[in-house]
């Protein structure tokens, strides 16, 4: 088995004074060793809550109410906080959009990475320093010695994100979860960071779970794509299937609203409307209000069905009678 992460029927709800917010409903997917998987969706799709559920870093109101998350055989939903700390520090790393908030402002970049290395390996300080410099070079930082002794706020956004990636790699994780890590950066820097992530993943065999709202980013990086809408997976498949043979009306609309890399597209069509609030979902298909194919049938909830090898879609248009429902 090459599966490193298996999320099965994950359901995460938030319990607030104003009621229960069902942010993630019945989400299933797997990540293989060294695979690069992108979860794509607009804000409110549940993609960040999915990644925070995996890390067990939900706010106090958030609770996994159903499903399992197996990481190398261990069900993270049932793991103790102590086990989770070991997993977070050693096996799964996470990087976020704003690295400044995860870096210590009063400690030099080099020292922070060194500390992390010393926590995970039984080696001396000079060896740890050497490894830190190597990591900084690996993530494409020029003049690594100088950056080593810099404070985070003195670095540019792109440099800080590289430092975060170096930090995330310092524990030699098997899985790196990246939640919109390039969103705040300009396009050129964004491309550089994506290249670094891709190369590292390929060289070091780190699996990547990349959370983004940007299909352009998906095209640059992903082997496989999971499209989420209003807390559910609406389509998933390999990157070529999703870009060339998307079937779900939402995926198609997303593609039509995204500039193509080769500029072959005639016109960008923005998707009208917004993702429904999880507390005010339409009955039946959650895309109903924004779908130009919506019909009477769609007032019943569609299931995720496998339409061909490793290609799954949740839509009545596609859901033929004999298609088999996916229950992983
Ligand atoms: Fe549109 Fe109906 Fe398919 Fe939903 S089930 S995406 S409303 S066609
Ligand atoms: Mg998010």
TrEMBL record:
Locations listed in the record: Cell membrane
Topology in membrane: Peripheral membrane protein
SUPFAM superfamilies: P-loop containing nucleoside triphosphate hydrolases
GO molecular function, one term: ATP binding
Residue ranges of every copy of the ABC transporter domain listed in the record: 5-255
InterPro entries: AAA+_ATPase, ABC_Ni/Peptide_Import, ABC_transporter-like_ATP-bd, ABC_transporter-like_CS, Oligopep_ABC_C, P-loop_NTPase
Main location per the UniProt record: membrane
Entry keyword annotation includes Transport: yes
PANTHER family for this protein: DIPEPTIDE TRANSPORT ATP-BINDING PROTEIN DPPD, OLIGOPEPTIDE TRANSPORT ATP-BINDING PROTEIN APPD
Family in the record: Belongs to the ABC transporter superfamily.
NCBIfam families xref list: oligo_HPY
Protein name in the entry: ABC transporter ATP-binding protein
UniProt organism field: Halalkalibacter alkalisediminis
Lineage: Bacteria, Bacillati, Bacillota, Bacilli, Bacillales
């Amino acid at each position: 088995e090459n599966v490193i992460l298996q999320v099965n029927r994950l359901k995460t709800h938030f319990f607030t004074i104003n009621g229960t917010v069902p942010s993630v409903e019945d989400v299933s997917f797997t990540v293989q060793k060294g695979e690069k998987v992108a979860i794509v969706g607009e804000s409110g799709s549940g993609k960040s809550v999915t990644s925070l559920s995996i890390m067990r870093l939900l706010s106090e109101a958030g609770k996994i109410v159903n499903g399992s998350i197996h990481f190398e055989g261990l069900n993270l939903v049932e793991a103790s906080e102590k086990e989770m700390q070991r997993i977070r520090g050693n096996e799964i790393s996470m990087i976020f959009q704003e690295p400044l908030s995860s870096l210590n402002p009063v400690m030099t970049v080099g020292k922070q990475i060194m500390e992390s290395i010393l926590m995970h390996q039984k080696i001396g300080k000079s060896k740890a320093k050497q490894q830190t410099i190597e990591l900084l070079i690996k993530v494409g930082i020029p003049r690594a010695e100088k950056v080593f002794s810099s404070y985070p706020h003195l670095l540019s956004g792109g440099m800080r994100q590289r430092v975060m990636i170096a930090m995330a790699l310092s524990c030699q994780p098997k899985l790196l979860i990246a939640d919109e890590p390039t969103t705040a950066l300009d396009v050129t820097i964004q491309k550089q960071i994506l290249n670094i992530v891709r190369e590292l993943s390929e060289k070091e065999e780190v699996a990547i779970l990349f959370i983004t709202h940007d299909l352009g980013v998906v095209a640059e990086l992903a082997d496989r794509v999971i499209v989420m809408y209003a807390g559910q997976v609406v389509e998933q498949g390999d990157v070529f299937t999703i870009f060339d043979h998307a079937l779900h009306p939402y995926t198609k609309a997303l593609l039509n609203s995204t500039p193509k890399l080769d500029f072959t597209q005639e016109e960008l069509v923005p998707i009208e409307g917004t993702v429904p609030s999880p507390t005010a979902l339409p009955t039946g298909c959650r895309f109903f209000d924004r779908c130009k194919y919506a019909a009477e049938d769609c007032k019943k909830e569609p299931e995720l069905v496998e339409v061909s090898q490793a290609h799954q879609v949740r839509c009545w248009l596609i859901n033929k009678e004999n298609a088999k429902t996916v229950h992983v």
